[in-house]
Design brief:
This protein is α/β, with parallel strands linked by helices. It has helices at about 15-30, 65-70, 80-90, 100-110, 125-130, 145-150, 175-190, 205-215, 255-270; strands at about 35-40, 45-50, 100, 115-120, 140-145, 160-165, 195-200, 220-230, 240-245, 275-280. The longest helix has 17 residues, at about 15-30.
């Protein structure tokens, strides 16, 4: 939706889950010398201030990265330590003041030969995103428009290697159907790409049905990770968890998340209903 600003939610528990997975996906792509593309259908502003502006309204980062910030590296699972290290790079003085969105994380992890393609529909967010990547040159191309529609022209990428992140706000219930249609078309055009789909755990019926619908897009070779931090809110409104669904995941990711999620669930739990799930269907 055109009114949505991710800064209100930057660094919350859902961002933590999403970005732990994204960092691991990029690390795996970096294992091979062949270049890849990082494509983000809903890029947002790229990076966010946590101590001023929108992020201070509900201080949602305190439910996510704020709970991890004071931990020592030796206390963190390797995948969480890797993610926190990337956040720390944006806060070199040790004070948690800024949070990197997915594009910023990808930019830090990409190599010189890799390429970034970012879509953002919100008129203010795209301007901030352009400012963040003003010196990126042709390595990062930004598109002012709807990533659901624009991504088709980019697939398959010339390198035949890509990570595609699809994470709309889902404030508009049509985003669930549009995401499914987008992924279905992407798989037709580029069946071997890695697709990471984030979704919210909310009481809306469309959200409840969504994981099963994602599984039907490709019967094999997918990973589904969820992090529930609390009981669903009694009034039916609000985010109580989230999920990441990855098509064509690295073979290492399931084992990594199995080791990571018990610790992360304990760290981010808001009540006794906190739990996680890791499902994997190989080739």
């Amino acid at each position: 939706m055109l009114s949505y600003r991710h800064a209100f939610h930057a660094g919350n528990h859902a961002d933590v889950l999403k970005h732990v997975v994204v960092v691991q996906l990029l690390r795996y792509l970096n294992r091979k010398d062949k270049p890849y593309w990082y494509i983000d259908t809903h890029a947002g502003a790229g990076a966010y201030a946590l101590r001023e502006g929108y992020a201070t309204k509900n201080a949602e980062f305190e439910t996510g990265i704020g709970k991890l910030w004071g931990c020592k590296d030796k206390d963190l699972p390797p995948a969480v330590a890797d993610y926190v290290g990337e956040v720390a790079a944006l806060n070199p003085d040790g004070n948690l003041r800024f949070y990197p969105g997915s594009p910023y994380l990808a930019w830090r992890l990409m190599r010189d030969a890799d390429r970034m393609r970012l879509f953002e529909l919100h008129s203010t967010e795209i301007d901030i995103l352009r400012a963040h990547f003003a010196s990126a040159g042709r390595r990062a191309m930004l598109y002012d428009g709807d990533g659901f529609d624009g991504i088709n022209a980019l697939l398959p990428p010339p390198t035949r290697r890509a990570l595609v992140l699809i994470d709309p706000s889902f404030e508009d219930k049509r985003d669930y159907a549009r995401t499914l249609a987008c992924v279905r078309e992407c798989l037709k055009r580029f069946a071997t790409g890695t697709y990471a789909i984030w979704y919210p755990q909310v009481t809306r019926l469309e959200a409840q049905r969504f994981p099963a619908q994602l599984k039907r897009l490709q019967p094999k070779n997918w990973l589904h990770v969820t992090l529930t931090v609390s009981h669903p809110p009694r009034d039916g409104f609000g985010l109580y968890g989230s999920g990441m669904f990855v098509l064509n995941p690295p073979y290492t990711l399931a084992a990594t998340m199995q080791k990571t999620m018990p610790w992360l669930t304990r760290a981010l739990a808001q009540d006794g209903n906190a739990r996680f799930e890791v499902e994997y269907q190989g080739d």
